[in-house]
Amino acid sequence: MMAIKRFFLTALFSLCAIVLPALDLTDVHHTLGGAFYGFIDPNEGLSSFLSLNIPCGGREESLGGAFIGLADDIGFFDHNPAGSCLLSKGEFALLHNSWIADSNMETIAWADRFNDLGLGAKLKCFYVPFTEYNYFGDRVAGNYYSETTACVNASYNFFHGYYFKGLAVGANIKAAWRSVPDYTNNETNSIIQGSGLAQSAFAAMADVGAMTSFDFFKNFASREPNLRVGVSALNLGAAFKGFGSQGDFGLDDPLPSAVCAGASYRPFKKILVAVDFRQPLNFQDFSKSGIWSAGAGLEVTATDFLKFMTGFRLKGGNPRISLGSQFKIKKFVFDFNYTFDLTSSMNPVNHFSLSARVNLGDRGRKIRQDRCDDLYTRGLDEYAKGNYQEAVEFWRAALKEDKSFTPALRWIQTVEASQKLYERVLDIQSLD
Questions:
Q1: Around Cβ 251, how many Cβ atoms within 10 Å?
Q2: Rounded to whole angstroms, how far apart are CA atoms 74 and 89?
Q3: Residue 348, preceding bond cis, omega within 30 degrees?
Q4: Mean pLDDT across the stretch 244-268?
């Protein structure tokens, strides 16, 4: 029965993925595009390494990019570097994003959590075919324009306890290379050696972020808080161009830096809502900073192996609507996304992404938590029987499994305080 149910749900989503892009949505495209005309950013396109703003794909894109205050899977890299120390399980992922105009983004990433420490690394490459034609329409050069970014991450969850889940702080250190192919001399049709290198560029930058979580109007049982809030500052650094003999070395255009804030909330166990806000910053000329952007996403858990997502993002005059799904098979998680991106036509299919993630496990955290819960419960049983010393021994054993398990510590303190009070009463009686 379960196998039939999985097949039916998978077939239904596959049908939607085929039919929706085939619909004639031209009128919708023009209507939405006109409605948001007033949001067009006059400073759009003044930054270099714009591939840093392109989502790697999968779940984060399905949620409209509203991941600043969520960051609960490997998609945290491009949104909030504090997310790695909050991962429930380590992940290894491969992501593909088919962007507009035959451009693509390929990403490989790894992240894992070691108690309160999170570590990760990612490599992504954006590329688009580059073909040059002469005055007569003859192809004279062909290659790829690309932007490749390498990233390492570290984060730590401070003050982590049973009631307060801590303050997670993290950072990414990133290096990027823009590769421009050599072009030709229109007079001689010969390739100018080093001409591409003169326009290529190198960038060094960092991301910083923080996140915390707590319960807010929670009506379901779970140890995990149902509200997360996060802030981050992305792409803080500089780019340099003019390598080689054809150009003068110096600063390139500013990076697409931004300060961001976001939140995610579970009003019910099966429903997640996420929102975020971003303000671009031009560190070379603040008066030319872009206008704000915002996104919102909704995730509905249909079964333990299937989720559906939708998102909306407004950036400049470009509203972007996303639809996605997540399917789990044992340790593998697959995310599918299709985005109606009004920077391009919605017909035919030209903007989709997918990701494949491997669950690397939780390094025994769930087993230790179960042992801690069992020892705590056995301590309560002994306490109810009046065996206070035995109860304290169970609670101390529970603290060895999880030193942040505050309920066990408080019960130990209660028993010790009661024992001291009892001994004081005996002392007073003996003096009488």
A1: 13
A2: 10
A3: yes
A4: 88
Backbone angles phi, psi at 262, to 5 degrees: -160, 170
Position 134, amino acid:
N
Query: Do β-strands 332-341 and 352-361 pair in parallel, antiparallel, or remain unpaired?
Result: antiparallel
Alpha carbon distance 376, 368 (integer Å): 12
- Arithmetic mean of pLDDT over the chain: 85
Distance, CA of 153 to CA of 87 (rounded, Å): 13
* Token pair belonging to 78: 């491009």
Tokens 């997360």 locate to 228
Distances (CA, A) of 6 to 18, 304, 329, 413: 18, 11, 10, 50
Q: 297: closest CA among 346, 264, 253, 252?
A: 264
For residues 91 and 71, what is the distance between their CA atoms, to the nearest angstrom? 13
What pLDDT, on a 0 to 100 scale, did the predictor assign at position 172? 98
CA 225 to chain CA centroid, Å, is 18
CA separation for the pair 100, 119 (Å, rounded): 32
Taking the CA atoms of residue 208, residue 213, residue 216 and residue 218 in that order, the dihedral angle to the nearest 10 degrees is: 130
Tokens read off for 57 = 């794909």
What are 88's two structure tokens? Answer: 């429930």
E-assigned strand segments in 185-282: 201-214, 227-241, 250-251, 257-268, 271-281
* Cβ-proximal residues to 142 (8 Å cutoff; 6+ apart), any chain: 129, 130, 131, 132
**What is the CB neighbour count within 10 angstroms for residue 180?**
19
Residue 357 in this model has a pLDDT that exceeds 60: yes
The Cα–Cα gap between 33 and 28 comes to: 8
Number of CB atoms found within 10 A of residue 135's CB: 8
Q: Which residues contact 328 (CB under 8 A, 6 or more apart)?
A: 304, 305, 306, 334
Q: Give the rounded distance of the alpha carbon of 299 from its chain centre.
A: 14
Return d(Cα 234, Cα 334) in angstroms, integer.
Answer: 27
Per-residue pLDDT tens digits for 290-306 = 899 999 999 999 999 99
Residue type, 199: Q
**What tens digit of pLDDT does each residue of 288-344 get?**
898 999 999 999 999 999 999 999 998 877 788 899 999 999 999 999 999 887 654
Residue 264 pLDDT exceeds 90 = yes
Q: What pTM did the predictor assign?
A: 0.84
* Length of the chain counted residue by residue: 432
pLDDT at position 273 over 70: yes
Name which of 31-35, 60-64, 96-100 the model is least confident about.
31-35
